[in-house]
Design a protein that fits this description.
Helices cover 34% and strands 31% of the residues. It is built from 4 helices and 10 strands, in the order E-E-E-H-E-H-E-E-E-E-E-H-E-H. The longest helix is centred in the last third of the chain and has 20 residues.
Length: 196
């Protein structure tokens, strides 16, 4: 079972994450931000992980620290759950349509942190959530997980749809990348012999 619990406590946020990579898409996410909870729920269901996120953050300021720190803690959880990456596919990609939006996501558990964020969200907010925080979430994840992550928006005009397509595609992409390839179950998928 690739199942972990992560705790991350700072002066700005107190976060607990429970992650099961081999779950069924069950979620219980309480970030303190309704829109972020919605995105985490979508991410979890489409990735078929089991995820519980609990965060107490300084949301009276804004959602910046909460969003960024959950991204970091989630990246740490994936890294810990995957261990030495033995047997995983390593790579994943997904092209996700959502109404007028078309989003491409591709990921490599390379051990090298890089985010290519080719996304244009037309509004500054969705509800009370600052849309620029989506990039902060993804940056936090890639830095903590050691992944190369690409998003390319091929179409889209509705901010909610664009962000939702990103999180759904991200979940589907991670599902592929962390899946065990039984032909290579005892191998680390790199000629270097390590991915950390």
């Amino acid at each position: 079972m690739r199942k972990v619990t992560i705790e991350r406590n700072t002066n700005e946020t107190q976060i607990t994450i429970q992650l099961n990579l081999d779950g069924t898409g069950q979620y219980q996410n309480q970030s303190g931000c309704g829109f972020l909870d919605h995105m985490l729920d979508l991410f979890t269901r489409h990735g078929r992980f089991d995820l519980q996120v609990s965060c107490k953050g300084d949301t009276w300021i804004d959602y910046h620290h909460t969003t960024e720190d959950i991204g970091i803690a989630l990246g740490q959880a994936f890294s810990k759950a995957l261990g030495d990456m033995r047997g995983i596919n390593r790579y994943g990609s997904f092209l996700l349509p959502m109404d007028e939006t078309l989003m491409l996501c591709a990921l490599d558990f390379s051990g090298r942190s890089y985010l290519n964020y080719d996304v244009a969200i037309p509004t500054a907010k969705v509800g009370d959530f600052d849309t620029e925080l989506v990039e902060e979430f993804m940056l936090g994840f890639v830095r903590a997980a050691g992944t190369t992550l690409h998003f390319k928006q091929l179409a889209g005009s509705n901010s909610h749809h664009i962000i939702e397509a990103m999180f759904k595609a991200f979940g589907r992409t991670l599902k592929q990348a962390v899946a065990i390839d039984q032909q290579y179950a005892d191998e680390i998928p790199s000629t270097k012999g390590l991915l950390k």
